[in-house]
Amino acid sequence: MLRKPIWWLIAICAGVWVVCAIHPHDKQTWLLEQIATVLAISTLATIRGVRWSVVSLTGLALLFVVHTIGTHYTYSLTPYDGWLQTITGFTAADLFGWERNHYDRFVHFLWGLCVTLPVYEFLRQRLALNRFAAHHVSLHIILSTSATYELLEWSAAVVFGEGGTAYLGTQGDPWDAQADIAISIAGWAVCIGVHLAAHARKKRGRGY
Length: 208
Prior knowledge:
Blueprint: H1 4-20, H2 27-46, H3 54-73, H4 80-88, H5 92-96, H6 103-125, H7 131-160, H8 162-168, H9 176-206
Helix pairs in contact: 1-3, 2-3, 2-8, 3-6, 6-7, 6-9, 7-8, 7-9
């Protein structure tokens, strides 16, 4: 039986998906993006024997929401700068001197940040790996899935032409794929760092 917080997360994700599925900016790109969504949800739904923490599932829900919003506008056209300016009065482009839309970078960072803990929990509970091994293997999984996604984007650009190019979303950056993978690893590093710090604090609280 699902815990009550999980139902709230499911409801939020479902609501965001329905809203973002209405009149997306580029229907073909939106449909291509749903492939990753379906694969991720299917994979999660087929895993048995793991008691996911609320933190893990909240992170996955955050990733889903941010990704789904990006699929509505396409990553390269998501108007986060306009939203930020409305709320704060300034834009990220003005603050950091950015010349491209970095929404895709943010989603790739969240991939490393939000997927690492669920992967860690799976490795610990289902494969009985020790803490060090689970951290190490989770890095390889984040790296390999990020690289696989970049290959899928490239394949879509080759097969679907202009529509696939919008899905690819390089915005003229020849190192886009490498940067996306690197930022995913950065997300993994932040997650592992926070996890290790939380574990160390918990040990101190127990007096050993």
